[in-house]
Amino acid sequence: MAVLSNHPVNRDQAKVMNRYDITKRLVGLLHADEAVIGGIGYTNFDLWAASESASGRRQQNFYMLGSMGLAVPIAMGVAIAQPRRKVFALEGDGSVLMQLGSLSTVAARKQTNLCVVIMDNGAYQITGGQKTATGEGADIVGIARASGLEQSAWAADEDAFVELVARSLKEDGPWLIGCRIDTAKPVDTTERDPARIRDNFMKGLGVRA
Question: Per the CATH hierarchy, to which homologous superfamily does domain 11-204 belong?
Answer without folding.
Answer: Thiamin diphosphate (ThDP)-binding fold, Pyr/PP domains (3.40.50.970)
